[in-house]
Amino acid sequence: MAASMYERYIDCLNARTWTELGNFVATNVVHNGRPLGLDGYRAMLEENYRDIPDLHFNVDLVVANDEHIAARLRFDCAPSHDFLGLRVEGRRVVFHEHAFYALREGKIAEVYSIIDKTAIEAQLMS
Questions:
Q1: How far apart are CA 7 and CA 59, in angstroms?
Q2: Can you give the pTM of this predicted structure?
Q3: Which residues in 1-126 belong to E strands, given as ranges?
Q4: Mean confidence (pLDDT) of the chain
Q5: Per-residue pLDDT reduced to its tens digit, 66-114
Q6: Residues 5-49 pLDDT 10s
Q7: Is the CB of residue 23 less than 8 Å from the CB of residue 12?
Q8: What DSSP state is assigned to residue 19?
Q9: Which ranges in 16-115 belong to alpha helices (H)?
Q10: How far is residue 115's CA from residue 97's CA, in Å, rounded to a whole number?
Q11: Handedness of CA 101, 61, 9, 74 (dihedral sign)
């Protein structure tokens, strides 16, 4: 059940249907220890899409139970400016994000995510 909810959540992100975000994310969601709330979480995602116009979430792996989801996400995109403090400036980069979610009442309540910045650095050096 959690895995299918996560699939619909990713579809929501990729379609940028922000009005549906509350179907998947709790109103008091926390991201990497920062209490953002649903509005702050949405603002963070909207900023991600402004900085990376071709952003698309590709799910490589999902492990889920009723309380937690772990996912490996793959990105192949071209950030328009600096990204994670790196001068990407429109270059196409491929990287992964590892995200862990705590669910409460069937919605994402906490998110912990780590982006493989080293993979991006290696591509920018080549």
A1: 8
A2: 0.93
A3: 25-31, 34-35, 58-64, 68-77, 93-104, 107-115
A4: 96
A5: 999 999 999 999 998 888 889 998 899 999 999 999 999 999 999 999 9
A6: 999 999 999 999 999 999 999 999 999 999 999 999 999 999 999
A7: yes
A8: G
A9: 37-51
A10: 4
A11: positive
User: Hey, what are 57's tokens?
Assistant: 């979430």
Distance CA 77, CA 94 (A): 7
For tokens 């209490």, what's the residue? 35
**Tokens 């109103």 correspond to what residue?**
27
> 18 burial class (0-12, 13-18, 19+ CB within 10 angstroms)?
middle
48 contacts: CB under 8 Å, gap ≥ 6 = 55
The DSSP line for 61-74 is EEEE-SSEEEEEEE
How far from chain centre, in Å, is Cα 121? 20
* Residue closest to 25 by CA, chosen among 113, 115, 100, 110: 110
Amino acid making up residue 19: T
